[in-house]
Amino acid sequence: MQVLEAVLFDMDGLLVDSERLWYESEAEVMADLGAPWGPEDQESLVGGSIARTVAYMLARTGPVADPEDVGRRLLAGMAERLRANVPMMPGAKELLDEVREAGVPSALVSSTHRALMEHALDGIGRDRLTVTVAGDEVAHTKPHPEPYLTAARILDVDPRRCVALEDSPSGVDSATAAGCHVVAVPSVVAIPEAPGRTVVSSLREVDLPRLRSLVG
C-alpha cells in the first residue's frame, strides 16, 4: 500500500480567496490603460502567470505601455490589497493545520511571484507549510509540471505519492503532468471529473484521511 508522502497546495483561489482581488487589480490597471475588463477576461487567465496576464492585457489595448511597468502595477495593486487583508478560503486553515499536525510534509506551489507570495504568507501562516515555490523561482510556470516537480524535489518525495490541490485548469494540468493525484476545487472556471482527479466544491469536503485514500 502506498503512503501519502506530501500535500501540495496552490495559493490563489485555493487557499486564499484572492481571485476577486486579482480581478480588482486587473480592472484598475486596464482602466488606466483605457480599456474595459470583465469576468470573461479573468476566466481566460485564472491560474496563469503575470507575464501571460500582461501579454493578454496589452493584446487588448495595443502597445500603450511598457510590459514591465504593467506587471509592476498589477503586483503593486495586489500587494496593497493583501497588506490590508489576506482572505482565506473556507476550510483552508483547518486542512493546513491537520496536515501539519500529522507530520505530513507540505508545499505551497504558486504562479505568483515571491514578493507577492510573502504578503499572502502573512495571512496563511508560514509555519503551516514545509516549503514554498513561487512563480518567479521556476523556468516554466503552470501548466508546465516544473512547479510541482520542483516542490517534490525540494521535499525529496515522489510526486506520484503526493496529492496536489488546485482551483484552476492550468494548475490541474501542471499537477497532473507532474504525476500527482489531484483534488480540484474550482473557483472561477469549472473543472470536470477525470481519472486521477477528484473534484469537490470546497476544502471543507477534504480531510487528511481522504487525501491518504487517493494515494493508497
UniProtKB/TrEMBL annotation:
InterPro entries: HAD-like_sf, HAD-SF_hydro_IA, HAD_2, HAD_sf, PGP-like_dom2. Pfam families: HAD_2 (PF13419). It comes from the Bacteria. This is HAD family phosphatase. The lineage of its organism: Bacteria, Bacillati, Actinomycetota, Actinomycetes, Streptosporangiales.
